[in-house]
Structure formats: structure tokens, C-alpha cells
Design brief:
This protein has one helix and eight strands; from the N terminus they run βββββαβββ. The strands form two sheets. Strands 1, 2, 4, 5, 7 and 8 form a six-stranded mixed sheet that branches. The longest helix is centred in the C-terminal third of the chain and has 11 residues.
Length: 106
């Protein structure tokens, strides 16, 4: 029997050993149509993994607003274009976890 193991490191956005992932394009989240009558505002935080291979993965969402706002923020986050973080010593691309903030105003 043979086993293949994949070991990967995820760096925090506060890690000083890497240069942060560079967000090239961050689309705004669209205010949900079905919420406009309520005139609610607030923030949604989306935890994202910017992978070394250029892929983006949504790790989680935190908000006190309805699920419609959370989904709008996730939809916007999925459209982000970025350059991966780079380890300062090895100069290799690395994966980095970041939390993004989306503001919704009525």
C-alpha cells in the first residue's frame, strides 16, 4: 500500500514572514433587492483563503444581518482577482487566510 500526503501551510494576514496577497479587483457586494424595503445596513465579514495556486476559497461568513446579505457578500468575494502572498525568505507563493469586510448601506 502507498499513501500520498499533501502538506500545506496557511498563513494569517498578520504573519510578518510573508508579503500579503495583493487584491487586484474586489467587486462591491450588491444590496439584496428583497431587503431594500427594510432599509437595513451593516457589515458582513467573509473569511477567504487566497491559495498559492491562484484559487480562492470561501472559509466562512460572519454577520448579524440576514442570510441574503451574507450570500451577496460571498458572491462578491468569489469574483475577487488577486496575486498570491509570497514568503519573504523563500520567495515562493504561499496560501494566506484573510477576512474581508463588506459594508451594506440602505
Amino acid at each position: 500500500m502507498f499513501f500520498d500526503f499533501v502538506v500545506s501551510a496557511r498563513y494569517s494576514e498578520r504573519d510578518r514572514n510573508i508579503t500579503r496577497a495583493k487584491i487586484i479587483e474586489k467587486p462591491d457586494a450588491v444590496y439584496p433587492e428583497n431587503q431594500k424595503a427594510q432599509g437595513v445596513g451593516g457589515k458582513v465579514y467573509v473569511s477567504v483563503l487566497f491559495s498559492a495556486n491562484g484559487a480562492l476559497q470561501i472559509l466562512g461568513v460572519r454577520s448579524t444581518l440576514s442570510k441574503d446579505f451574507a450570500q451577496a457578500a460571498v458572491d462578491a468575494a468569489k469574483k475577487i482577482k488577486f496575486e498570491p502572498a509570497v514568503h519573504k525568505t523563500s520567495k515562493k507563493k504561499v496560501s494566506q487566510k484573510m477576512t474581508l469586510e463588506y459594508n451594506f448601506k440602505p
